[in-house]
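WARN retry 2 of 3 for item q-0093 after timeout on previous attempt; input resubmitted unchanged.
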Amino acid sequence: MNLAPLEEPPEALVRDGNFLLGRYSGTPMALNMLDVARPYHYPVPRLVKNARLKEWQAFQFGDERWYFFTALYNAKSMSLVIFYAYDRLEKKRHGFRQVLPGAAFRFSESLAASKVGYRRKRLHFEAECATGEGRIDLDVGLVHRDPAKAFAGQFHLACGQAQSAPISVCLPLGLNRAMYSTKLLMPLTGTFVIGGEKHEFEAPTAMGVMDDHKGYYPWILRYDWVSGFGVDPKGRRIGFNLTDNQVKDQVRYNENCLWINNRVYSLPPVKVTRPKGVAGEWIIQDTEGLVDLVFAPAMANDLKFNAGLIAADYHGPLGSFRGVIRNGSGEKIDAEIFFGAGEQKYLRG
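OK item q-0093 returned
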């Protein structure tokens, strides 16, 4: 495999107006994407750079019964908040999704002190990251006239070195533009109350993955992504992230990885094919024999609209996996332990 080992993170993503491209074993303290110079051939005001910088923070977490998928997404032309709780036993989805005009969320330039959320009279979702303290806290609630549909949850993810291993990347998108992301698998504790019934979450069966993301993507954004997690027969916490996006030179630069407890292993570039469309099985493979997965969607999660200059065609189903995935040492992981999500994303704007 041609990927170099993860490097020590720099203090900041941008130095002297240029992105410090690389794959890092920790998160830079300053996620200063707006300090980049000439991202579009010529100097542009900070206001313009901010308008083109897409940002989101997403979490997937749960245990053997519950799978939660959340996102706070700011495309500047529009925003999106999602909280879905999928009961794998009952095969029922609970939650909410709101599409909002303009830039509804402001994201921090540091995960050491980050708090972002969405709050209305009857529903809210908030995420607070304090990586210096080794914690991420999530709080959600929905008030509903039907008690069976009301819910509330408080979740805590442990992101200290003893519990997790982040991978942070700064990857080229062309010109002096790049995307940044920090992803990590963490043990989870917390509670979720729905319909008057309380569900408790404890490691090692409960875990979650965070994606903190910023990018100067092209006007038309496209990518394929799959991620999942589970507990193997040895009781280990295992998860993976696989993306095929618009990054240049993915053999050298990608964000693909496998987590086993608090270790992270790099993976090669992958391709996603869907012989029977997004509702059918997805095939995810690399060329080095480390990734050979099939993703079977169990619940659709689609968003499609066309408003002229702004449009979206998004498919983000939840589902199970089969096949195998290997770490760099050749250990084979049976993919049937995983449950997770996939995305086929097209966004114009």
